[in-house]
Amino acid sequence: MKWVQLAMEEIVERHGAILDPDNPHQLLQQGNLPKYIYVDKDCCNGKEGGRTDSNKFFYGMIKLLDAFHLILRIGREINSEHDRKAKFMRQLAQCIFTSSAEDMRKLDEARQAGNINDLNNRQKKYDRTKFVRRVIRDPKVIGSKILLLLKANIALDREARYQFEKARHSCENLRQQTPHTHSLQRKLRNV
Questions:
Q1: Last residue of a domain, one of 40, 65, 90
Q2: Domain that holds residue 177
Q3: What is the rounded distance in angstroms from the CA atom of residue 153 to the CA atom of residue 159?
Q4: Across all residues in the chain, what is the average pLDDT?
């Protein structure tokens, strides 16, 4: 953390911001410092109510969890042996990220100009990964997509349970939903 402190103090200084000497995570003057900083951890303690005023600022910038680590945090709560986990995680990423339409158009134009029409799916995916930016759009749309994804998976779970019981199997020892699923659903409803 000493190296982080030194790096952040230099960033603050380079942007013309002035830190409060009594609280080095608060600013007296913003300068050209960005309002937000995206971090991969310590954006909060990961629990309901954990984002307090005292821990949301980082050298005067508001800490936000980046989207990639949000997806990882959700994935940690899902049983790794669940048959649909990998697909759910891909669908979750698709809810959050959108391929740049401009980049896709340019990629298609480049392929047409080079008369490249015989790429297999693996090659097309490689090109998309390398040349097409993924962007994050409207948070309300993202929240709605995630809520629909959750509801669809809940419906699949209910149907699987119905079919299991219809075949006269017991569901008593099956793992129940974790409390985190319910809190995630509540949070998404408020987006």
A1: 65
A2: 70-189
A3: 10
A4: 82
